[in-house]
Amino acid sequence: MATFQFDLVGPERILYSGAVDAVQLPGSEGEMTVLPGHAPVLTTLKTGMLVITESPQHGKRVLVRGGFAEINATSLTVIAERATPVEELTPEIIDADIAAAELQYDATDDYDRKIEIEGQIAQLREAKVALSF
Predict the structure, then answer these.
(1) Of the candidates 81, 70, 102, the residue with the CA atom closest to the CA atom of residue 4
(2) pLDDT (tens digit, 9 = 90+) per residue, 78-116?
(3) What does the DSSP assignment read for 9-39?
(4) What three-state secondary structure class fits 1?
(5) What is the pLDDT of residues 11-49, one digit of tens each?
(6) Ramachandran bin of 81, using left for φ above 0, alpha for ψ from -120 to 50, beta for the remaining angles
(7) Which CATH number fits domain 4-85: 3.30.70.240, 2.60.15.10, 3.40.30.10, 1.10.340.30?
(8) Which of 82, 94, 80 is nearest to 131 (CA)?
(9) DSSP annotation of 40
(10) How far apart are CA 101 and CA 113, in angstroms?
């Protein structure tokens, strides 16, 4: 199967760099899967699980919280506002992120911002359940 170059950069470090079969992204307009030969796209990311498929039945998951992705036929680069590989996540980390988002929600009167934050909280709660803490 064909592969493409994938680079995932977080604020503190490079979390992944290498050839992959596919990457599923939590795009702000909806989930999307990037495969080799993808049309050029620049998209923002929402809070959610990024799934990296390195080869059939072998992959990694990373919880991302915002950022953007630049896609072209031979590569994908994700610059994440925050990113944590699932093996580094704990219930306390997710609970702290939920609490911080709830404070942001309470602190704003902007309706659109409240809707955005509600989505973040829902994604974080979903990630916590999916990871079976």
Answers:
(1) 70
(2) 999 999 999 998 889 999 999 999 999 999 999 999 999
(3) E-SSSEEEEEEESEEEEEETTEEEEE-TTPP
(4) coil
(5) 989 999 999 999 999 998 899 999 999 999 999 999 999
(6) alpha
(7) 2.60.15.10
(8) 94
(9) P
(10) 11
Tokens of 82: 């925050």
What gap in Å lies between CA 117 and CA 99, rounded to an integer? 11
Domain locations in the chain?
Answer: 4-85, 90-131
What mean pLDDT is reported for the chain? Answer: 92
**Alpha-carbon distance values, 74 to 5, 65, 97, 133 (Å):** 6, 25, 34, 37
79-84: list long-range contacts, CB under 8 Å, 24+ apart: 79/9, 80/8, 80/9, 80/10, 80/11, 80/15, 80/45, 80/50, 81/11, 82/10, 82/11, 83/8, 83/10, 83/15, 83/50
